[in-house]
């Protein structure tokens, strides 16, 4: 409804008709009010953060373990360094070819497919019988690890405008922690067992992450 303001005439305006001025003081638009509601709970934000960290860590696990790869596959230091190159090259290809699909496909399904694919690629690399097979597996690991860059805008899209900065900041904290802790975790696991066990553990972590995301991501 609109209220009306009656403005009378002064002493110099006797005989003039009274003006009716409409005032826009109706109810607040319901759509704007609903836009402030959050689809992201604290636990879901934490899950996004962990998922991003676990995903991006796959790019860095083998960097401190190149001497182990060199001895295990009996290759030179230069060839062993190709393991890092293959992972980063796969990541670049993922950014160029897979990331744009987030604007075309349903994000929830794409995230789940990419997370499970990353788990499979890690298991493939862990079981590599020869060095060339390892490089192929690591190329796929890098390409599918781009799921971290899909999860960040996914979390932002679920958050209301007033909370978007906080949500993105929390998720990005998980990404940075994943980068920083990957080498430390790799060193501990590899020292206790081998680089193959490390990749199998990483594959299991991605599989568990996929199950958690499937259970919690809104449809």
Explain the overall architecture.
- The protein has 219 residues and is mostly helical.
- The protein has a single domain, classed as MFS general substrate transporter like domains (Growth Hormone, Chain: A, Up-down Bundle).
- It is built from ten helices and two strands.
- It has a two-stranded antiparallel ribbon.
**What is the β-strand count?**
2
Low-confidence stretches: 1-14, 20-36
Shape: elongated
Averaging pLDDT over every residue, what do you get? 87
Please write the string of helix (H) and strand (E) elements.
EEHHHHHHHHHH
Discrete helix count: 10
Largest sheet: 2 strands, antiparallel
Instruction: Supply the CATH superfamily name.
Output: MFS general substrate transporter like domains
The level of helicity is 55-70%
Q: Remind me, CATH topology?
A: Growth Hormone, Chain: A
CATH class: Mainly Alpha
Global structural class: mainly alpha
Taking the alpha carbons of the first and last residues, their distance comes to: 37 Å
Cα Rg: 27 Å
CATH architecture grouping: Up-down Bundle
Strand content: under 5%
- Provide the domain count: 1
**How are the strands ordered across the major sheet?**
1-2
């Amino acid at each position: 409804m609109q209220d009306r303001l009656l403005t009378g005439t002064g002493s110099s305006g006797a005989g003039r008709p009274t003006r009716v001025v409409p005032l826009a003081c109706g109810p607040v638009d319901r759509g704007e009010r609903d836009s402030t509601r959050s689809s992201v709970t604290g636990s879901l934000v934490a899950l996004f953060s962990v998922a991003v960290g676990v995903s991006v860590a796959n790019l860095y696990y083998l960097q401190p373990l190149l001497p182990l790869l060199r001895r295990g596959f009996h290759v030179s230091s230069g060839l062993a360094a190709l393991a890092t190159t293959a992972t980063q090259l796969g990541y670049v290809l993922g950014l160029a070819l897979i990331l744009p699909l987030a604007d075309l496909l349903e994000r929830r399904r794409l995230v789940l497919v990419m997370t499970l694919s990353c788990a499979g690629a890690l298991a493939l690399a862990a079981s590599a019988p020869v060095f060339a097979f390892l490089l192929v597996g690591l190329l796929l690991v890098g390409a599918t690890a781009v799921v971290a860059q899909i999860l960040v805008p996914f979390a932002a899209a679920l958050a209301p405008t007033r909370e978007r900065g906080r949500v993105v900041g929390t998720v990005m904290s998980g990404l940075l922690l994943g980068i920083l802790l990957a080498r430390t975790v790799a060193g501990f696991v590899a020292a206790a067992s081998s680089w193959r066990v490390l990749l199998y553990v990483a594959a299991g972590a991605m599989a568990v992450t996929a199950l958690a995301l499937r259970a919690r991501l809104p449809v």
